[in-house]
Each structure stands twice: as C-alpha cells, then as structure tokens.
Amino acid sequence: MAKALTRRAMLVWALLLAGVWWGNANAQGWGQYGGQPGGGQYSEAAEITPANIKDLEQVWVFNTGDFSNGENGTRKTTFEANPIYANGKLFICTPYNRVIAVEPETGGELWSFEPSPPLPRDYDQQHSLICRGVSYWESGVDGPCQKRVIAPVLDGRLMALDAQTGDLCADFAENGVLDLNTTFDNQGQGVVNITSPAVIFEDLAIIGTAIGDNQNVDMPDGIVRAVDVRSGIEVWSWNPIPAEERTKSGAANAWAPLSVDEETATVFIPTSSPSPDYWGGFRKKDLARTNAVVALDARTGEERWVRQIVHHDLFDLDMPAQPVLAHKETLVGRVPAVVQVTKMGSIYVLDRATGEYLFPTREQAVPQTDVEGEQTSPTQPIPILPKPVAQQGFSQADAWGITPLDKAWCADEMADMRADGLYTPPSLRGSVQMPFYGGGSNWGGAAYDPERRMVVTNVMNLAQWVRLIPADANESHGSGPGELGRQKGAPYMMRRGVLLSPLGVPCNAPPWGELAAVNIDSGELRWRVPLGRVPLAMGLEGPKAWGSPNIGGAIITKSGLVFIAATMDARIRAFNIWTGDELWSHPIPFDGAATPMTFISEKDGRQYVVIAAGGSALLRPRLGDALVAFRLP
User: Fold this and answer.
1) Is 591 marked active-site?
2) pLDDT band for position 426 (cuts 50, 70, 90)
3) Predicted structure pTM score
4) Structural domain boundaries of the chain?
5) Could you tell me the CA-to-CA distances from 259 to 77, 87, 268, 275, 357 in Å, in that order?
6) Which of 162, 261, 313, 316 is catalytic?
C-alpha cells in the first residue's frame, strides 16, 4: 500500500513538474508576432544573461534565396519578418511571400510554400516587396490542418497552410486562399495589401490592411476583418470611415500589427491617416477613428472605445506600431494599460478598459494652414508625460552640417519654408516637419518589461520637407528631388523628402538613431543612447554619437537584456535594460531591418536569438536574404 502511494505521489509530482515545464516553455516561446497576443516583445527566457552575453555566438545562417536589388524590372525587397516559434518549428515569410518552416536548432529547411500565382516581382503598390510575419493556430486535436499557419500575401491574399506539411488547407476560403480584393468590396479606388500578420483570437484571424499613400482622394477604406480560421468565412468587419465620407476619403487602415487582450476579448487597432495624406480640404475634420487606437470586441467587432491621437492628419502620422498591453501602477493600484508609440516620438499610455489617458495630456494649439481651401485642427493632444523620446521641431537656426558649406546650404534651403515646430502644416512654399514620416518610432514598436516597469523603443531623428504643388501644374513643376504623390482628385499634388545636404548627410544634428527606455509608472526617461553607426566611404563608420537611421524593433528578456539590430551597420546588439550600456554586438550578413525574437527550444532546452538580416530598400541598397541564429556555446 505504501509503495503504491509512493508511486502515485511520484506520478503526481511528475505531472506537476511537466505542467510547470510546459508553462515555462510557452512563456519562453515566441508563438506570435511580438511574442504575445498583446505584443510587448518580451520573453521569460533567461539562459542568456548580462554575465554570459560575451560568449553568445552565431550557430547557423539560413538563406531564403528570396531577394532583389531591383534589377531586371523587379522591385527591391525588404526583409522585415519577425519569425515565430510554434509546434517545435520556426515559421517565417519572405519578401516574395514564400512561407518557410525551419528547424530551430540547425537552420535546416523543413518545408516551404510559394503562393500560386506567385507575387509579381514588379508589384508596385507598396514601397518594396515585404512581409512582416505569419500567424499560428491549432485546434487541440490531431489531423491534417488542425495546426495552421495563416500567412499574408502582399497583394491582398490570405493563406491557410498545414503547419506540419506546408500544404494549403482546402477547407479555408477558395482552396486555402482568401483574396480580400476579389471577395470583398473595400470601397474606393485601388487595392488593399497585407504587410503584417493577422492576430489570432480563439478561432478567428483578425486582419488589417496596407493601402498606398498619396495616390487618390478616395482610396479603399481601411476595413478590419475577422475571418474563421477553419472556413475563411468573414465573421465581422469594421470600417473606420463613416458612410457619408466614403467618396471624399478612404484609408485610415491598420497596416501595423494588431494586438488582443484574450481575457477581455478585446482587439486593439492602430489606424492610419485618411486619404489623401497631405490634403484634407474635402474630408470632414472630425473623422474620429483615423490616426487612433480603437478597441473592438474581438468576437463581434463591436466598438468599445476610440482614442484619436492625431486630429485631422495632414502629415502622414499613422499609428505605426502594434498597441502593447501593459500595466501602470497608480495611486489606486495597478491599471491595465495600452501603450502606443508614434511617429512623433511621443508615447501615449491609455486605460485599457476606457481609452482614457493615464498621464496628463493637454490639447495644445498648433500651427494653422495658409493654403486656400485647406482646414487645420486648432489643437493636438500632447502628453505632458512621458516626454518625447525623439527630437521634435526643426528650424533654420538648427541647420547642421559636417562642414560650414553644407551647413550653410541646409540653412539656405530652408530659408523660404515654413518651420513652425511639430505639426507644421504642408504649404506651397514648402514646410519642414520633424520627425519625418518614417520616424521617430515606427513599426518596430515598443518592448515592455513587466518586472522592471520599462518601455523600450528605438527612434529615428530626421527632418523632412514637404511641398504642395497645384494639380494642374505641368510635369516640370512636378519634377525634382523626393517622392511625388499625385493625390488624384485633390487640388494639390505633394512632393516630400528627407532634408539632406549635397553630401547626402541629414541637415539636422545627430544622433539620427536612438534607443530609449521610459518608466511606465512615472513616465520618467530612464536612459537614451545612440543606436548603431552610419557606414561611410571606404569602409569607415560615423562616430558612435551619431547613431544610425533604423528600421525594426527591440526585444527584452527576463534576464535584463535588450536585443536589437535595425541599424545600417549590419550588426545585432544587446544592451543592459537598467543603464542602456551596450554589452555585446555581432556582425550579421546584411542590415537587420526587422525585430529579433528569442525562444527556448523544446528539443534541446537551449535559448536561441534569431534575426532576419536582409536589409531594407528604405535604408540602403545592400539587400539580402539571411536568417541568423545565436546561442551560447
């Protein structure tokens, strides 16, 4: 009898330990974009520490073969994928939207699948060929397609693949493929794209879209849709553009990743600017769901609250990153929060249940338009805390250069432009805006450390110019440097670009890239450090104090490490979460214009750090196709 009890007790302890291990394995995995359904880019994995980080070494490189530098009529590629670790495999998507399952411990290919027809290599509805990640779902039972990879295609298709084999799941939509452009009426002119993965909630895949900027007044509406992961049938949809405004505007889409609070069944949507970006004279000023964080019932799509961050956007200030679920300590206790980083370099912390600001925020008067027929919001919401983590505002007196000549050129270039600080509206004579439309924080988003109470984000500090051009101007008036947006249907075209000297150097003083940490409870800036180095001629690099323009994001581990690549010097780095000190760096084959991930292998129990290193068409032309893994010896 005693022996039987002992055996029974041992069995119970074994099951308990297995449960603990399984729970830790899940907590130490990376099963979805951002690490968790609510984002945060945080992992409980702690084998790699500040004490042993110096020993971290590269263990494998996997080359996808999917990249282009723009030769032979193809578009350039941008490798921004955040791999996920699920079912004992790594899953990635390439810029050609091929989905690949990789053996995590060796980097060997397990299977790959390419959409049919393939994504056109000259596809021109986005700035480059791009895919930020895939999603994973499982039913809990065994069988074909009971574990699925839900994968986007840039041209608006959504695929369901068997996670075991890579085969299409024929019961999903049309033989495994749902085409958002042919299945649904997206309103407006043009097509919808998908650049970010769906967020999975229960048996739903909830997906936003990417819509081309500055093309027409009436672009497709930024409709968010939830589809059944088994059948591909739409369960609900939500449109940010009111019915009466749909011929005057469009977009307000969620091109950045979504997040979900599984406990309250709430999905959080970061919306973009309405179309066209730089002309708002036709659209109503009060389009409350644009440039906003929106909370919806994840099961029904019913709206719970809306918090607009930018009123009547004339600046292309989309909500560019996944809303992050966090907690803020207050005088009345711990409050569930949502953290939204922005292109302005401001961080907004919202009550998760109501959307109310959790730090004092004031409606501040901003510069007004001088363009006939245009309208401007009189105020914009400015948080008192946290302070901005990016540089805001830029004037002629701030002009900078490596030499007195290029400094003088920059100052002279700005002499006739409007430069009235943050939210300077577009003008016919040209306006200066700082940060530019690709910074301060972008889709790399924020990493949140729940133990140390810190939010970490990288920013880009660059100034831009933007100029309105009459729509009836001849082609010579529309030519010149920078990007031209025709904004068809509006009285003005738009041309914009980064403010650079003839040497190709930014006209604003460095650092041009930084990494910053903010205490979520107090709003205090804990540290801010330059990030990366700028490549110069003949293999030289700029000083560390200059930092580097950057694309991608950071992750945090339980041991107190911040990992990030993102820079133009083809390196991945690790920083101390408390101080911002750089503890380790390692070269990678190409710029890591992506967010890394980390996981504990179910097979060998070791911690791996993985980064997609293929560069970005937006950073520099040196592009590639490498997925790189690191591990302790």
Assistant:
1) no
2) very high
3) 0.94
4) 1-30
5) 26, 21, 5, 24, 19
6) 316
